[in-house]
Task: structure prediction
Amino acid sequence: MSRKSRRAKWIGGFPTILATLYLVLLIPDSRPPVPPQENRAPFAWNRDEYWNQLENGFKIARSIGCDSL
Result:
């Protein structure tokens, strides 16, 4: 077998190998995701007052303007 034909086979087979590897990696994990625990309390931010203060401060600063700040 000549050197040129080996190289041609390698160049022709490389995309096939890459495509096969890609398809194998697309197979999802067989284990299902773990559902969340039901005995835990749902997430609650409870920071409405803090965000309202920040918003009011922003509105005041915006109305005053950059030069006055």
The longest helix spans residues 3-25. The chain has a mean pLDDT of 85. The chain has two helices and no strands.
